[in-house]
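Support case: asparagine complex. Customer-provided input:
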Amino acid sequence: EKPNVVILATGGTIAGKSDAATSTKYTAGQLPIEDLLAAVPGAEEYASIKGEQVVNIGSQAMNDKVWLTLAKRCNELLKQEDVDGIVITHGTDTKEATGYFLNLTVKSDKPIVLVSSMRNSTSISADGPKNLFDGIITAAAPESKGMGVLVASNDYIYAVRDLTKTNTTNVATMKAPNWGPIGVAYNGKPYYYHKTLRKHTTESEFDVSELTKLPKVDIVYGYSNMDATAINAFVENKSKGLIFVGVGNGNIYPDALEALKEARKKGVVIVRASRTGSGRTTLDAEVDDKALGFVVADDLNAQKARVLLMLALTKTNDLAEIQKDFFTY
Ligand SMILES: NC(=O)C[C@H](N)C(=O)O
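Agent response - structure generated as follows:
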């Protein structure tokens, strides 16, 4: 009896096509799921595979509606006895956000593995088929149970919580700058060395099963000499939360800080993150979070802090509780 794996296809470069095999110019989200599977014939030895096309887009066009569709579909499928794991094909640009959203909203310990590619399907040395193969064998393996949502990329396996895209074009773009990969896939099997201690999936309190939209949370990038324009515009446009991507340990230019204080007075939840790309944004460092009523993102980057704040705001506006979420998930 082979494990049953369902592939949910959403597009990305892995489904992209180009006229020139050696160019970075191509269109993402062109090939249907059947064509992606045809490029990994050996995978059938490891799993019975079914495919569903959810959308076919470049992941720069990913949105809340597709996140909710994916979360609900994963929850439905993983309840079925005849589904052992899910692979999601996805673009690399925003895979970390989609994956983290699923990590917090899918209520199952069965594996979910996101895969993508940097070279499109018509490129010389396209990396999609190997990543898809690794995704399938990882989703089919009992060792992957209870690991949270995973990413198989360039031979490595990552906890999606820790992962980010680090390079615009290179096949080794996926990295976990703080905590590294948790395993490696080869010869048709995943081998694990670490496991995240942060809560996910079956232990997550977030429930999107009845939701059709998510709270509006935006991201403001910090820099020298910045003014209040972007912050004020987001507040006027009804942001419920702002992730401020501060310099260093989440530090803030004085004029921007004044604008954030005003935003906070209007009830907007402010989360400080860092533009450094690694490390924790720590409480009460150079910024007096307690006095200001700010939250810190801990080791999450801005795009993942945004996902967590959106979900946190579906259940509470309490700052202490939101801060606790950032130390829990
Ligand atoms: N490599 C990729 O997949 C990039 C593409 N723009 C996407 O995210 O869909």
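Residues 12-13, 28, 58-60, 91-93, 116, 118 surround asparagine (CB under 6 Å).

Case will auto-close in a few days if no follow-up is received.
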